Amino acid sequence: MSKKEKVKDIEAEQTEVLEKDIEGTEASQEAVNEETQEELSVEDQLKEELQKEKDKFLRLFAEFENYKKRTSKERIELFKTAGKEVMIELLPVLDDFERALLHIEDDKEAEELRKGVLLIYQKLLSTLEKKGLSVVEVAQGDAFNADVHTAITQIPAPSEDLKGKIVDVVEKGYKLGDTIIRFPKVVVGQ
Predict the structure, then answer these.
(1) What is the pLDDT of residues 1-12, one digit of tens each?
(2) Which residues lie below 8 Å from residue 59, measured CB to CB, with a gap of 6+?
(3) Cα 187 to Cα 190: distance, rounded to the nearest angstrom
(4) Mutual orientation of helices 84-106 and 111-130 as an angle, nearest 10°?
(5) 128 near 90, Cβ under 8 Å?
(6) Helix (H, G, I), strand (E, B) or coil at 138
(7) Are strands 173-176 and 150-155 parallel, antiparallel or unpaired?
């Protein structure tokens, strides 16, 4: 072999080595790109998981806040109407006092008795009012509302303007706070 051939062989070998190096470099660069993409996808996955957990936490926190508000509102309502059953049991006593006062007013000789009964009635009524009891205001001529009144009977209206309106109040109604605990019983004109 001549020197020229040796040089050509060496150049060919070097070219092959360079081509192999270039191919190896491209392959390693592709591998690096794949790893980078995998890392990015792992990073993206972690970001997505973190976002999901944040969302889950925020929803849970909001739900807990709503729960606290709801229970505190229920507790306040419970305190307002805690004596509801006692109040309902005392309403007939109030009715009896009112009836007694009506009958005592007819008897002129029992003036001292009337004053005593009136005093006890007012004391009982003021005590119950302090606890949140109030009368449902109903008057003759008011429009009948089935959500607020209980119609016990209908009678022919004494005048045209009382048709569909309250003619008489048979029994008072009472509220405890904003809740009606006894609906007023009324007579409605037809």
Answers:
(1) 566 677 677 777
(2) none
(3) 10
(4) 160
(5) yes
(6) coil
(7) unpaired
Residues of the chain with pLDDT > 70, as a percent, come to 84
Dihedral class, residue 177 (left if φ above 0, else alpha if ψ from -120 to 50, else beta): left
- C-alpha 50/C-alpha 43 separation (Å) is 10
The DSSP result for 118-135, as a single string, is HHHHHHHHHHHHHTTEEE
The predicted model scores a pTM of 0.57
Q: Name the burial class of residue 39, with classes exposed (0-12), middle (13-18) and buried (19+) by CB atoms within 10 angstroms of its CB.
A: exposed
pLDDT, tens digit, for every residue of 129-143?
Answer: 998 889 999 988 888
Distance from the Cα of residue 42 to its chain's centroid: 43
How many residues are listed for the chain in this entry?
Answer: 190
Cβ-Cβ contacts under 8 Å for 148 (sequence gap 6 or more): 136, 138, 173, 180, 183, 184
Q: Is 147 helix (H, G, I), strand (E, B) or coil?
A: coil
CA–CA dist 31, 11 (Å, integer)? 29
What mean pLDDT value characterizes the chain? Answer: 83
pLDDT band at 36 (very low <50, low <70, confident <90, very high): low
